[in-house]
Write a structure and sequence with these properties.
Shape: elongated
Number of strands: 14
Structural class: alpha/beta
Strand content: 25-35%
Largest sheet: 6 strands, mixed
Oligomer: single chain
Number of helices: 11
Number of domains: 2
Mean pLDDT: 87
Low-confidence stretches: none
CATH topology of the largest domain: Rossmann fold
CATH architecture of the largest domain: 3-Layer(aba) Sandwich
CATH class of the largest domain: Alpha Beta
Strand order of the largest sheet: 6-7-8-3-9-10
Radius of gyration: 24 Å
CATH superfamily of the largest domain: P-loop containing nucleotide triphosphate hydrolases
Length: 308
């Protein structure tokens, strides 16, 4: 659905996007991660045929951005990080205006507008003025607008930017619904844990260069080469720590209050003997789990915070 080869955007000596290589299939949800100024928005604008790259090629739904931009625009829904709305229109009027721009006419136009309002849970605001909407509602209205022509590919640039926690949760739920509808979605965001929850692939970009492009699980494995366990015993924490330190699979044991943070030696696949040994020694376990690595940790480990 999205394929790029050596895609590059250069301003003078500055590379906004450098030799970008992407290959997204139908139904993929691709999280595009990077610091401000890394090149995410530039890449999305190129794919939306709003910018011409300096060199390189990109295909969207099989069409080249150079030779078939109109065909691409019919198949893509692009939502920028900041977009204007017509404040003096009602919500339903706003959507009908854009539906008319997509040449959707008559009864079909009203039905499609009602359907997308229901999808983004704004049906109860159909007669409200756009100016009366909250930031979160405005973002949902923007999503409704890009869904009017039933695009196969969605390019969403920071859809949760500036939203409060409740609105971010609502946007995340909406993205899950779109994923379940089979849309191919490219979404950039700084809210990294939420991307991990909805994406099957992520790309980490810095200074215009794609540092990582892989499945979420592969990225986590790349960052963490050692397993870390969090263990809590009901009593005698110091004695439990000493017992764990004597196991050949354990590299270090750190005590944080009543929590034992156990780092295993590289390539340790089975650590079940640790739990068994503690129980057999008379310790009562209240916690024994592998420390979860989140996307924020991976991002910090793989980038340096340098922008173009």
């Amino acid at each position: 659905m999205i394929e790029t080869h050596d895609l590059t955007m250069k301003y003078g000596e500055l590379f906004a996007v450098k030799a970008l290589e992407l290959n997204l299939q139908k139904g993929d949800v691709f999280g595009f991660i990077g610091p401000n100024g890394a090149g995410k928005t530039t890449a999305m604008r190129i794919l939306a045929t709003l910018l011409n790259p300096t060199w390189g090629e990109a295909y969207v739904c099989g069409y080249s951005i150079y030779t078939h931009p109109r065909d691409i625009r019919r198949l893509v829904g692009y939502m920028p990080d900041f977009f204007g709305v017509y404040d003096d229109m009602k919500v339903i009027e706003y959507l009908e205006f854009f539906a008319a721009a997509y040449r959707i006419r008559g009864a079909a136009r009203r039905k499609i507008c009602d359907d997308v309002l229901a999808l983004v849970d704004l049906g109860y605001k159909r007669e409200a003025l756009v100016t009366s909407l909250s930031r979160g509602m405005t973002q949902r209205l923007g999503l409704a607008r890009v869904l009017l022509h039933d695009p196969q590919v969605l390019l969403l640039d920071e859809p949760a930017s500036g939203l409060d926690p409740r609105a971010r949760i609502e946007i995340r739920g909406l993205l899950k619904e779109l994923r379940n509808l089979g849309k191919t979605i490219m979404v950039s965001s700084h809210i990294l844990p939420e991307l991990a929850d909805i994406c099957n692939k992520i790309g980490i970009i810095e200074r215009g260069e794609l540092l990582v492009n892989a499945d979420v699980e592969q990225v986590m494995k790349q960052v963490r080469r050692q397993t870390i366990l969090n263990i809590v015993v009901v009593e005698n924490t110091a004695a439990a720590a000493k017992l764990l330190e004597g196991d050949a699979s354990v590299e270090t044991v750190e005590t944080r209050g009543n929590l034992l943070v156990v780092t295993l030696r590289p390539n340790t696949a089975d650590y079940s003997q640790l739990a068994t040994g503690l129980v057999e020694a008379g310790f009562r376990l209240s916690l024994f789990k592998e420390d979860e690595l989140n996307l924020e940790t991976a991002f910090m480990a793989l980038t340096k915070g340098i922008t173009s």
